[in-house]
Please model this.
Amino acid sequence: MIRLFLFVALILSIHQVFSQETLLNNKIQGISISYFGEGLTHYGIKIGTEYSLKITNKTKIKRNSKEIPKRKEHFLTGNIGSYIHKRNHVGLFINSEIGYRKTRNKGFKYEFLIGIGYLHTFLQGDTYTVSDNGDVEKVNLAGQSNLMIPLSFGLGYDFNLHHKKPFSLYLKPGFFIQYPYNHALVIRPTIDLGLFYYFNK
Model:
């Protein structure tokens, strides 16, 4: 699990991404903040950023000479977050995703993301353990280290493309795989509702 954490940390530390078609070459695109719901109702927060791999801007000219802009993007994300599952556990996570996004002429966008990360869960309430000689001891910060594999589909509106405003809004329903969980794995549905603020736009 330590190797996984170091791998994710390495991804999040990338500051140079090379592409001939990148709009903001070798720069962080911006920062996002969102409501992150695990199990849809277990509330939390997520903060992230994006690194562009490739941005392709195209303009379609209609018969009436009206210009229709379109944008396709391949990108990496880096995220940290937390959620609270009441009377069960608190989750803290760090992850990275690779995504594809398409933005239509009016600013409406959709995207697909898949990633890998590290999740640590802390049990709520007092936790105790019994030693081999029968002594009962309290366990501080009892919890578990987990592999986290998030997958999501996003819908939103980019105010930059059509209105030249430096932000976009998005809704990302999805899920993440948590492993191990009771000697197996569990799939946890998620909802991600937030705002992305662009730098230098």
Summary: The chain has two helices and ten strands. Confidence is low (pLDDT under 50) at residues 13-26.
